Amino acid sequence: MSIIHKYLTGEIFKCLFFVLAAVISIYLSVDFFEKIDNFMEAGLPFSRIFVFLIFKIPFIIAQIIPVCILLSVIIVFGLMTKNNELIALKSSGVSIYYLLKPIFIIGLILSLLLFSISEVIVPITMERANEIWLKEVKKESAVISKEKNIWIKGNRLITHITYYNPAEKAIFGISINAFDEDFRLVRRIDAKKGLFKDKQWFLYKIIEQNLNQANNQYRIKLHEEKVENLDFLPEDLKRIIKKSEEMSFNELFNYIKKVEAEGYDATIYRVDLYAKIAFPLVCLIVCLIGAGIAFKRKIKEGLPLNVACGIGIAFFYWILHSFCVSLGYGEMLSPLVAAWSANLIFSCFGILILLNAD
Asked: Using one digit for the tens of pLDDT, what is the confidence trace for 183-211?
């Protein structure tokens, strides 16, 4: 590695460290003041919110690394331009494409690092953070297994749901068990499917069993459709199910195969699976975009405008990526296209801006 490449690499990583620390501090401060009242109302010791926030740090890092490296590249080259270092390098015959080599390598390293963090660390820490939030703060009675089976304990009720589809607000493989004061099963409902509409749960293909107190025999009724008052809403299920970010790539892949083998729709999770590969590569893309912005002579207003431009680009990427993913969830785009559209568009933008850089 040449002296110039070593210098650029060192400066970019130093800047990345400070930008990352600043953004994490702001994120944690906002989250702290937003949730401290919930922890106090739950009667938890003050230390629990710090444990909760520590568990969230890997997830925060995974979300903000792209924008932080984008700003770092812009700041480093902006300062070099301000100090006439870029002019000196160009005057000595150094091409801007020669300066891109360490940036490309840094982007590639950070993409691999981001994928590793998302694959190994984030699933563990986010599961712990969600356990603290749901069980200790919100006092949720639901228990979630690794197979996505959901158990909900209510007032003398135990409900089991095999699978929940957030997009359709549909539940599948429902079993509802009602008990009396002696914990004797007095009613059981098994339903193939349930839909939430008009603020009610509609169950379909139902087998209902009711205990006859006189002879201790169960009477069985069959229903094609029935409205049932369940003490949970789709928002509750969405909050308690294991999220895609809590699963590794292999775990999510195996879960998709299992769900589809059972005949359920796994479109949402397939979009998330492709996004687990697509999102880390944005580090490489924004590195090239950041360099292109910093190299353009047409922007004479200086570093502040370049930084503002970088923040705007990062924000637009996030909006576009989220929009495309939402279209994938709604099956308006294929999962593969939904996950990769933003990357493809921004890759073209990055190449274009570099080709027009001076």
From this structure: 889 999 999 999 999 889 999 999 999 98
